[in-house]
Amino acid sequence: MGxxxxxxxxxxxxxxxxxxxxxxxxxxxxxxxDIGANGGVFRATDGLQxxxxxxxxxxTPLAETMIAGVAVGMATQGLRPVAEFQFMGFIYPGLDxxxxxxxxxxxxxxxxxxxxxxxxxxxxxxxxxxxxHSESTEAIFAHIPGLRVVVPSSPARAYGLxxxxxxxxxxxxxxxxxxxxxxxxxxxxxDGEALPLDRAFVLREGHDLTLVAWGASVxxxxxxxEQLSAGGIEAEVIDPxxxxxLDIHTIIDSLEKTRRCVVVHEAARFxxxxxxIAAQIQEYAFDVLDAPVQRVTGYDTVMPYYQLEGAYLPxxxxxxxxxxxxxxxxxxxxSSSRSESALNGGATQP
Amino acid sequence: MHKPRLQLQASFDIAHLQxxxxxxxxxxxxxxxxxxxxxxHCYRQMQLARLVDDRAVKLQRTGRLGTYPSTLGQEAIGIxxxxxxxxxxxxxxxxxxxxxxxxRGVTIxxxxxxxxxxxRGQNFQHSPNDLPICIPIATQMLHAVGVAFALxxxxxxxxxPLQAAVASSGEGATSKGDxxxxxxxxxxxxxxxxxxxxxxxxxxxxxxxxxxxxxxxxQKAVAAGIPALQVDGNDIVAVAWAVRDAxxxxxxxxxxxxxxxxxxxxxxxxTADDASRYRSAEALEQAWQWEPIQRLDRHLREQGLWxxxxxQDLDRELAATMExxxxxxxxxxxxxxxxxxxxxxxxxxxGLYEQYDQLRDEQQQGADA
Lengths: 350, 369
What we know:
The complex is a heterodimer. By secondary structure, chain A is α/β, with parallel strands linked by helices. Chain A has helices at residues 10-24, 48-52, 64-76, 95-102, 105-108, 138-142, 155-167, 217-230, 248-258, 273-285, 306-312, 316-328, 339-343, and strands at residues 7-8, 28-32, 57-59, 80-84, 118-123, 148-150, 172-177, 186-187, 201-204, 209-213, 235-239, 242-244, 261-268, 294-298. Chain A folds into 2 domains: 7-187, Rossmann fold, CATH 3.40.50; 201-331, Rossmann fold (3-Layer(aba) Sandwich). Chain A is 36% helix and 18% strand. In chain A, strand 2, helix 2 and strand 3 form a beta-alpha-beta unit. Chain B is α/β, with parallel strands linked by helices. Chain B folds into 2 domains: 16-335, Rossmann fold, CATH 3.40.50.970; 337-369, no CATH class. Chain B is built from 12 helices and 8 strands. In chain B, 46% of the residues are buried. Classes of the chains: A alpha/beta, B alpha/beta. Chains A and B meet through helix 3, helix 4 and helix 5 of A and helix 5, helix 6 and helix 11 of B.
């Protein structure tokens, strides 16, 4: 087995993509906290400083606003900064620069300056981490005009989408699902081939139900699809991968076949991307729907400390329950929509 | 009570620079760059900035321009800073910078466009690498540090001459974390960046003493390990020397610097503000005695470089310049409404086609009605 067919994890695919782009593009600089000699707290930049030098792979002082802000200045002068936030929970001091500057620079200078920045951040729960290390707040960023939000869910997609993100002429928030950083290995040829942004991936074909999921939830969603298949139900599984801008067409095309949809995400439900996807589905495909779009999500609570995170995160059972709600719904039969009993106060009053 | 013996670990001094006193008299020999031509150029540009400010405020008062932040009384800082920059340096201005922008070649039409609600004003035609004016406070300081990194990298990798970045701000901005984080990184990475702080005594309604307990703004640089100087910001020669010196050191690879230029905001914060709510007429009247244009006027006349006749000629010339710019600005063709989509991304994502078409059709229907 040659170098070209090395079997690697998602986090190794991130490293491989960074190395490829550092090697071919002198404008690429990689920086963040502890990313140099230490190789990043998840080792996503392992060996890069040694290979490409401390002038292009840089440890920064400990200041997230600064990381977000200097990337803006670098990018306006033609560099391709790839900035790492150590965890998504610490990205918020940088939000001002991402939202107020990186995402708007091209527009507010009418194309004179631009910000081809990749902001990387490990995100999501399920690794028994301390407080503030487990949130999924992609919806906050997906709301920002001018920004792209990209989430890979496999080593191959991590490699191809990160290459595409670095080469993209606009800013990208690249969220790395750390729960599956090392969950699976696959051969990822180091061929520099990017995958398309703004395109959803159909991970599994099926005609009975459409399951939409991204990031680490793809793992449980595919498991749920296998269990459904064992019962004779074939689910189509779609990973949007680029959450903003969203490829709704692939989802609508699938729904024209399956007529039933479940959206799965770790993030809290209210105002989450499940709501956006459900809204777009009813705008574009109301007539083909045989059931209300189901959302299987984290709860609208603060992300719990890790003792309770297993109960918070949507697992296979919750996804299967959502799938059965969608499958068993019929307009004439008893409602399997969650809305009626809850809206009438029938839900449990603690 | 026991008093431990302590050992001094560090100490610092903050120096103040002035060349021209309030009467326009030189307090020390002027630097070589301050030739008669340079002095009269600066004098002209300060007058032009004041005229642009005056007309912009009047346009706002008559409903023809949006909110506008005047630089009244602070013209020396902007003109000196803009003048000290090379064409290949990169300027990262805050929003109160009419004079500096003019020195960078930004046109009056562009300045009016910005405050007249037209993004095309930020598309500077004559200083294409400069950042647009920055409204969120102090964020431009971090951008300048990133710019300086890029300039340094270009120098090291491509052998280009080392150029520098300059960020401007008010003293209120020095209360923000962005300011400290910018100075800190600039110091650690020894980047070619100069921070010029216009200490005009007011951040909207909060006076200098309500902003920080430090004795000077300049000493805030000490904590970041970078050199700092306080200058008389109403003395254009002092500001120019400080910025030129800091830029020369930055371009020589000696790293960043901070300059605190002391002035006084003789205007309201913006046209949306009424400073009489929070500062006394007496304080304002007193501050008018120290303003920078009068000081340079006295100096030029004392040196025999200026006269009433020259002033009349200049007034006529500047008025004509202003009228021509206003004419061009009024004659600008409005952008199509779809311009709000045109530069959102390098290429409009397919998911936005529908909204783009909706906006275009709404506009078309409005035009047809």
